[in-house]
Amino acid sequence: MLQRQELRKAGLKVTLPRLKILEILAGHGQRHLSAEDIYKELLDTGEDIGLATVYRVLTQFESAGLVHRHNFEGGHSVFEVDEGEHHDHMVCVETGDVVEFMNEEIERLQKDIAHKHGYELIDHSLVLYVKPLKKDA
Amino acid sequence: MLQRQELRKAGLKVTLPRLKILEILAGHGQRHLSAEDIYKELLDTGEDIGLATVYRVLTQFESAGLVHRHNFEGGHSVFEVDEGEHHDHMVCVETGDVVEFMNEEIERLQKDIAHKHGYELIDHSLVLYVKPLKKDA
DNA sequence: ATGCCTGCAAAGCTTTTGCAGATGC
DNA sequence: GCATCTGCAAAAGCTTTGCAGGCAT
Fold it and tell me: Does nucleic acid strand C have an atom less than 7 angstroms from the CB of B50?
């Protein structure tokens, strides 16, 4: 179990709630989950873990750099395991599907633009809101 | 007063709270204000307008396309009058300053990327988090 | 006059926090 | 055994809503 090491490296004790939450985030078809999603999944699995703990653990994971928190439209955050490679997101407004993408040129342009305005780029958030292309009439 | 017409065109009655809020949004040094900011400004001006009304009016303005709502980091929304020209934002994490910018190439690339994934681009949100460039050592 | 607006207060939602007991090392 | 962690419940922060009176037209 590599996840135990990840936790230890982050200075966090290896506990059941943390392992379970990491497991759900890592091994889930949909990679972008809200705290509520994870909480429900835990209940389904028969785990007796409180919603407050889910939030607390996710916040710790975020500080440790294990997960990313995104604020898509909709009033709640979604979390995603950090697997090292940066990417941005596309959210389908009809299905809620989330697609990841990366574009070197956009990345470069962002850095240029920041510099041109006298700033250093620290982070960015790019979300495309899309809907399926109509193939027919 | 062109603002009266804008309100009427939006199907909203011309009322004092709406005019005042539009006025603050339009004629303010800082173009990006939270509901709370606007509320405080109203109090300072001696207007007796409730925070709930500020939120209600801003939401109506948003539906009418008069203002844009942004969700920068920090847990609260900020509002900005829509003056027709699209632009994205750069937020300085040290000073809180907000800089607007527009880059045709990024806009184009976004559309391309959406298409490439079988989607039509409806909207997007791009925020650069930056800090001032150090000129010295 | 009438229907849209507003203020107030109360509720809603996501997220955070305090505390006492439980658990990992 | 001791510090860290968890569950519960309560609180916090932003935003929305219900209702009764007020205002624009």
Answer: yes
